[in-house]
Amino acid sequence: MDIKGKAVLVTGGASGLGEATAVHLASQGARVAVLDIQQERAEEVAQRIGGIAIRCDVTDPDSAATAIAVAQEAHGVARVLVNCAGGGPIRRVVGRDGPMPLEDFVKVVNLNLIGGFNMARLAAAQMIAAEPDEQGERGLILFTTSVAAFEGQIGQAAYTASKGGLASLTLQMAREFAQFGVRVMAIAPGIFETPLLGNLSEELQRTIGDGIPFPRRLGRSEEFAELVGHVAANPYLNGEVIRIDGAVRLAPR
Predict the structure, then answer these.
(1) CA separation for the pair 248, 183 (Å, rounded)
(2) pLDDT band at residue 200 using 50, 70 and 90 as cut-offs
(3) 177: which residues sit within 8 A by CB, 6+ positions away?
(4) How do residues 225-234 score in pLDDT, each as one tens digit?
(5) Which residues pair with 140 in a beta bridge?
(6) Residues 7 and 34: beta-carbon distance below 8 Å
(7) How far, in Å, are 201, 222, 234, 252 from residue 184 at the CA level?
(8) What is the domain-level CATH number for residue 178?
(9) Residue 55 CB-half CA count within 13 A
(10) Which of the residues are catalytic?
(11) Residue 204 CB burial class (10 angstroms; 0-12, 13-18, ≥19)
């Protein structure tokens, strides 16, 4: 798909991987809607790239539907949805204080898995009804999962389950939407320079980076964004989870 002039939705676009993706796709000529619960930060990003900012809580059906409708009114039907909204704290299933509160698990799964599915179902409904391009393609849905989906570390039960769910959904949804010319892909980042890791000391960041085979450093958000751009451009990529991790394999802790 040639994304020049195409409408794109990026959830979690106000920071981290989502921000880098919004910036990169806009540089390729896409009309980008930056969707995030951080309204002020989203507006800063949108202004910088010539896009629009829309407050969106991906876990709320009404908020998500409204955001997509506002974006469609401004840019037309979105041909690409990049789901970057997500996160989750580290917490053991059974810790010193006893079992993890169930609501803590539910909250992370709701944000990462259900939120991603919520956006996908709504965006896909619009894509399916759109006119196909010359190759018969109508759209692309891209999930941001994680290497934790395959190598969940101690303390990552909720995060691992939610990201594993996205990885599993990728092929299922690709098969379901194939008849409509809508592709579904996922990218599984390894250890990247994100706002969360940015809170760690430089020394600790270097130590973590030294554990990555090659390049021996943390991943850069721009590298993730460039891969998103390639996935959008390559029509034969469908139903797959692509790792971008410098060949790292996570240890148990």
Answers:
(1) 27
(2) low
(3) 124, 128, 141, 183, 184
(4) 999 999 999 9
(5) 80, 183
(6) no
(7) 37, 21, 12, 30
(8) 3.40.50.720
(9) 5
(10) 159
(11) exposed
Q: What predicted TM-score, i.e. pTM, was given to this entire model?
A: 0.95
Q: Which residues constitute the domain of residue 55?
A: 7-244
Residues 106-125 have a mean pLDDT of: 98
Residue found under tokens 């940015």: 198
What kind and span of H or E run contains 117?
A: helix 115-128
Distance separating alpha carbons of residues 119 and 241, to the nearest angstrom: 18
What count of other Cβ atoms lies within 10 Å of the Cβ of residue 167?
18
Residue 36 lies in a domain: yes
Contact between 8 and 1 (Cβ < 8 Å): no
| Number of domains comprising the chain | 1
Asked if 53 contacts 42 with a C-beta cutoff of 8 angstroms, the reply is yes
